[in-house]
Predict the structure.
Amino acid sequence: MWLIVLEAGGALALFLFIMWWTMFSGRTKGELPGFSGMANEAAAENSKGAGANDAAVPPEGGRGP
C-alpha cells in the first residue's frame, strides 16, 4: 500500500516540477517589451483584408468536393 502512495507522490512531484519548469524557465528578464501575446497577433493578422463572409464563398468552378 505504501509503495502505491509513494509512487503516486513521485508522479505528482514530477508533474508539478514539469509544470513549474515550463511556466518559469523563460527569459531571465521576462517577456519582450510591447509583446502582448501570440493570440492577439494571430487575430490581427487574420483580420487584415478579410471580409466577414470570405470564408463562406465557394471556390469558382462550381460545387465543392
